[in-house]
Design brief:
With 386 residues, the protein is of the alpha+beta class. The chain has seven helices and 19 strands.
Amino acid sequence: MTNDRKKASFKIVVCSCFLASIAVWSQKTEKQQPHNYSLKVIAFYNLENLFDTINQPHIFDEDRTPNGKDQWTAKKYNHKISQLARVIASLGVRKNINEALAKGLKNQLPSKTLPERFKPLKKSWGADLLGVCEVENINVLEQLIEHPLLQPLQYGIIHFDSPDERGIDVALLYKKNYFIPASFNTHSLYIYNDLQQRDYTRDQLVVMGYLEGEPIWLLVNHWPSRSGGEARSKPHRLAAAFLNVHIIDSIRAIDPEAKIIGMGDFNDNPTDESFKKILQTKAKPGDSSYRELYNPMELHYKRGFGSLAYRDQWSLFDQFYLSTSLLKRTIGRYSFLKASIYSHPSLITQKGRYRGYPFRSYSGGAYRGGYSDHFPVQLFLIKKNL
């Protein structure tokens, strides 16, 4: 079997149930136009230390100041804002997917849904909902969404300051034209070091809102890092997973059929204990029962793909998980279509020691002018309109 056929077989396995339903819907509508389907894109992106240049008291941000170790000047900061805006504006490109929809989805969706060349688009798309982490404060997010490439997208911001010692937070950006927030809050994670002193880390952001009138719950995460070693730090991520479970149980107590999407930099892979035993995620849609969650990133990971690299080993820390209610195909309602890692060649280091790694802002103690040490990840929802 050729590599192309293997890839096609894999994608058919992942999406077969959903695509079969779409095919039935499409038998009588092959000549209909793409507007008979609605597509929404949810993404997550670790922005890799998006700090301003101001030294804030009570947080460890001295390195990211003009006189700090990184010599973090306004010029470098503004350049990073521009670089991140380019990436965000290119997320959610729908051209190839719309072409497939126009043909009734008789064939599998193309694997590449990116512009041929990575440059500012004549018309920016951007994800409809974008979870981010490693942002210092609301100010950097406001400057980001005001960049000329992102201004037309009319992003709103949901952000809370976390108690993290480095001063980094999570947040949600949303297109105001398509998503209306109804409620949002944060849940603090209480973890302790060997001296039983609290380690302050990122809060978990929970947002409930209406995606074109349809209720949906979003959990934005940045779990504790592997600093000090994977095994030593593992209990902290297990605690973070238990907090996710507590949040999900609380949501389901309100609405047992709630559509829930968890996203984030989990600092764990899809096959780690935090996912398989605590969250009880499954790799295949058919495996998921009512209480379980589906992780569309697990099969990507098992095929050797990742969102970040360290010491020549790929990890897939940037993930989504879904409630099984998003796997149900109902006309007029959004359901899961596919998930992918956005690894456009322009986001990859092309030469040197870190060739093939994500092209980051800093590496080897020097400013490289890249984007982030993580690739973004994307999740596509689709709806057959009435």
